[in-house]
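Researcher: Please translate sequence to structure tokens.
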Amino acid sequence: MTDPNAFYARGLGVATYDLFVGGGLLTGDVEFYLDCAQRYGGPILELGAGTGRILIPLAEAGYDIVGLDLAPAMLEIAAAKLGDRPKAGERARLVEADMTNFDLGQRFALVLIPARSFQHVTTPVGQRATLRCVRRHLVPGGHLILDLFDPNFELLFANDGADLPAREAHDPRSSNLVRRAVVARHTDPFRQTVQETLRFEQFDPAGNVVAREETSWSLRWNMRQEIAYLLELCGFEAVDLFSDFKGSPPDYGREQLWIARAV
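Model: Translation complete:
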């Protein structure tokens, strides 16, 4: 099987990650997690912490937080950010580990798995292992917040990805334009997985290509009924389910934003 996390190893995908995450259906997610932290308290564990996009605001708000990620290159960026923010650095700890199998020797009031990170675990066995690890790390009555995309089958099966519109963003550090495009897609309906090949191109202000590379990632989609069952199977009670970070009710093809309590 192709490495579902190849994208996160290093290169332009990692270097420009922050330019392309946090908008669209994820708009408002940082503020949502800050509100949840105020409601449920700390300490907090974030799985798939990546570059610290969510971890750092929570640490700056005064919460003790551990950020766990499988990708050293992503954690290097998060560590560099924390080095520039001493107050956040005092509250945050970064751990390189696999979310399907970890033991931190600590329990948390709140665990976050944001930005579809859970879906990079591409087998049912791995997803169950992740949720059981989370359950062992929660205090009694602690909460899990899990963000997934709700599968839009028109998008998943409509084409091979080659005609999807590219996304562009300017890198403020270099003033270069970065273009990210899906150039191929393979969907496996039996395994509920989608693998995408992404091409990154970087252009200088004169329009010259200064860097280009291709990488890939794989994700497993989950139906709502499946997640409800997985949560119950792994020791959770579903409390809420939203389709966005404003608290809207479930809706086809948007987000599955679950709040669950350890029982």
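Researcher: Any highlights?
Model: The chain is about 30% helix and 35% strand.
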